[in-house]
Amino acid sequence: MNERTISAQSWGLLTLLALIWGASFLSIRIALDEVSPLTTVAHRVGWATLVLWAYVLVRKLPLPRGRRIWIGFLGMGLLNNVIPFSLMARGQLYIPTGLTSIFNAATAVFGVLVAAIFLSDERLSRRKAVGVAVGFAGVITAIGLQNLREFDTTSLAQLAVLAGTLSYALAGVWARKRLVGLVPQVAVAGMLTMSAMIMIPLAWIVDGPIRLDLQPRTIFAIAYYAIGATAFAYLLYYKLLDLAGSGNLMLVTLMIAPVAIVLGAVFLGESLTPNAYKGFALLALGLVIIDGRLIDRLHRAR
Mind listing the pLDDT tens digit for each residue in 83-104? Predict the structure, then answer.
């Protein structure tokens, strides 16, 4: 893992990114009161695409060319946007936003396992294997064994969200294999373009014409999660990647859930079961073990 020290500026940006992404769960849930899951995603990728291309053109970044690159964007759009955004939006209709954010933290756990399977330079060490096992124990705890046995609408919603996190993990592998060497902001703009080309027609076919005559709170929610929590957040993410390194960015995964839980409780009156909090604690412990730096520091201290 990256051993880079986190500066005060990086901590500030990490906190800002966690607040932005944590609040996205609330804004998506608000939009879902008036807009269907597919149309919610169509708005998200459509408006974000326009903002990202405006950024690319203003900065005069090199434009992507070639069939191979756009096939890479297509795969990335499916795995990183179309599939996970749709599954998570559908899941949020039936489970609390805070619980959705807890399951979202499993992305890093799935990422380690998927990378070990598909990437030769990402072996599953003993420490990482222990971390993955603890993380999965956290997921099972958060779901609850009773929900798995009953397998009702809530259980399906939880599994849909988890399938979305698995898709995120596969997207990371796809990016390593197909999008190497591209300017990150250009890659994101291309990915969102292909996502929009899929989601806008799909939502139109399934839900009918995409309406813009929505309630003010819905318009604000869409603007927030599309422009703030997608377009701007991607730009902030890559700035942080340069400043703090990929290892330190794992901290965002742990910081998002508490933000989403608090906002869900304050604005939606949500409450989570004790198992959800226990599961998140185990997930956090699993990520700490996977990261390994805290364990190494404890060994050095001894």
Answer: 999 999 999 999 999 999 999 9
